[in-house]
Amino acid sequence: MAIVFVSPKQRQRTFFLGITVLFVLIILVIGVGVLFAKPVDVPKEQVFINPKVKVDLAILGATQVRGINIMDRLEKVFTYEALEKGVPRNGTILAIDQEDAEKKLKGRGYSIVKIEEAQVGRENPFTPYYAR
């Protein structure tokens, strides 16, 4: 029988200590290499030069700008029930407000039974369409 003076735990501890020291040395060498590295010159094509921008607000007084038409009001969707020569009709119509919708329907020859603004969208937009 051989006499062993170093225990297996001591060998394992020495092995892990050696691995740790080696890892720390590698990290230190890489860190020192990065820390003391000289910066590399960048080609002029890759350098962003911030342009000087001057905003000319005097253009707002020009006649072309003053003559621009402002956008019309957005039309809403209205659902209606109406009678056309005694025949019931229902559908949707686009108008700015309810009075405008009534004028458009009367212009088509409808007598209005019921008109209301349509509810656009869903109560909970995050529920999937297949779930009811």
Topology summary:
Elements: H1 8-35, H2 63-66, E1 76-84, E2 87-95, H3 98-107, E3 111-117
Antiparallel strand pairs: 1-2, 1-3
Helix content range:
25-40%
Beta-strand proportion: 15-25%
State the separation between the terminal residues, measured CA to CA. 82 Å
Structural class category = alpha+beta
List keywords for this structure.
alpha+beta; 132 residues
Explain the overall architecture.
By secondary structure, the protein is an alpha+beta fold. It is 32% helix and 19% strand. The protein is built from three helices and three strands. It has a three-stranded antiparallel sheet. A hairpin with a 2-residue loop joins β1 and β2. The mean pLDDT is 88.
What can be said about this structure in brief?
With 132 residues, the chain is α+β, with helices and mostly antiparallel strands.
